[in-house]
Amino acid sequence: MNAISTAKKLPIPADALGLLAVPLAMLALWVLVTRAQWVPEQLLVSPTKVIEAVGELWEAGELQGHLQNSLRRLFLGFFSGAIFGLIFGVLMGLFKSMEDYCAPLFNAFRQIPSIAFIPMLILIFGIDETFKIIIVAKAAFFPVALGGYDSVRGIPKNYFEVAKVYQCPLWPLIKQVVIPATVPQILTGLRLSLSRSWMVLVAAELMAADSGIGQMMEWGRQMFRMDIVVVGVFITGLIGFALDYGFKWLESRMARWKMG
Q1: CA–CA distance, 227 with 217 (Å, rounded to integer)
Q2: Which of 81-85, 141-145, 148-152 has the lowest mean pLDDT?
Q3: Is residue 5 part of a domain?
Q4: Angle, in degrees to the nearest 10, between helices 47-60 and 62-94
Q5: Tell me, what's the pLDDT at 228?
C-alpha cells in the first residue's frame, strides 16, 4: 500500500521517468568521465564548461546570430524545394507521359547524396547564401517528390476512371480526390525531407560558410574550443528533434482529421 500511495504522489508520470532515465544516465557518465579525467579535456569537456560556453556565446550575441542564419536558410531552402517537389511528384503520378520522360532521370539524381553537389555549387555560386539555399532545396525536393508520386500512384484507378467519365476538370480532381488520399504519405515525405535538409545544411555550413551553427562548430574546432563544438552538436540535435517531433504531431492531427 505504501509503494502504491507513493507512486500516486509522484509529480512526474512513470513513462516520463522512463524517457529521462537514459539521458540522465548518460549525463552522469559524462560527469564521471570528465571529473576522473579518463579522457583528455581537448577531446571531451565537462558539462559545466559547455554551459559556460553557451552563456558566453549568448552574451556575445553569436549564438542567436548563428541560429537565426541557419534557420533562415533551412526554411527558405526547405519550402522552395518542398513546393516544387510536391508539384513535380503529383504531376508525374497523374500523367503517364511525364512519368515516362522524367522518372529515369529523377530516380538517377535522387540516388546522389546532396553533399556530393557541394563542391560544384561552391564553384558556381561561391559560399554566399544562394549555394546553401540550393543545397537545402535539393535535399528537400526528392523525398517530397517521391512521396507525392508514390501516394498518387497508390490511389485506386477506378477513382480516376469515374472522374474521366464525368469529365472532372484537373483542379477539382486534385482538390477532391488527390489531396485527401495523399496527405498522410506526403506529410511523411515532408518530415523526412525536413530532417534531411537540416543535416545537409549543417554539413554545408561546416564545409563553407561565414555564419551558422555548422560554421560555429568549425570555428570551435579551429580554435581548439571543444566546448563550442559540443554546444553546436547539442543545438543541432535539439533542433532536429524539435522539427521531427513537430511533424509527428502534425501527422497525428491530420490522421485524426481524416478519420473524423
Answers
A1: 9
A2: 148-152
A3: no
A4: 90
A5: 93
Burial label for 182, CB within 10 Å (0-12, 13-18, 19+), is buried
* Chain segment 170-196, per-residue pLDDT in tens: 777 777 777 777 777 788 888 889 999
Statement: residue 27 has pLDDT above 60: yes
Domain residues for 88?
Answer: 48-259
Cell of 43: 577531446
C-alpha torsion 227→232→236→237, nearest 10 = 0
pTM: 0.81
Q: Which DSSP symbol is given to 12? A: S
H or E segment to which residue 146 belongs = helix 129-153
Please check whether residue 27 lies inside any domain of the structure: no
Give per-residue burial for 113-123: e unless 16+ CB within 10 Å, then b: ebeebbeebbe
Domain of 86: which CATH number?
Answer: 1.10.3720.10
Does 7 fall in a domain? no
Number of domains in the chain: 1
